[in-house]
Amino acid sequence: MSSDERASVLYLVDDVEAAVDFYTARLGFTVNTNVAPAFADVVRGPMRLLLSGPASSGARATPEQFAAAGRNRIHLVVDDLDAEITRLHAAGVPFRSEPISGPGGRQILIGDPSGNLVELFQPA
What we know:
Layout lengths: L6 E6 L3 H11 L3 E6 L3 E6 L2 E6 L4 H4 L12 E5 L3 H10 L9 E3 L2 E7 L5 E7 L1
Parallel strand pairs: 1-4, 5-8
Antiparallel strand pairs: 2-3, 3-4, 6-7, 7-8
């Protein structure tokens, strides 16, 4: 793998268009491919996020007991966590935690339209 390739993460989503809208309008991703309702992928920096709808091969290959959104999450670094919280709250984005501080910085969890977690992190 060359160093200029993107890292990809696959999220199973209930509605590909809603997921594309969320990640592009709320979190600054851009659309790479969109063949909704089955699949789309969006990119932000070196991350390629694969959004697999119920009709996609990724979703069909997933055993039912593992099909729900899980505890895994993508991790996005932000410059100003408080400003992001204010902006996303105004946009109606659901928060899944309160902001917490640790030795490395501050973070908060939000949910995408399918319940997948996204961590917003501001380094110390």
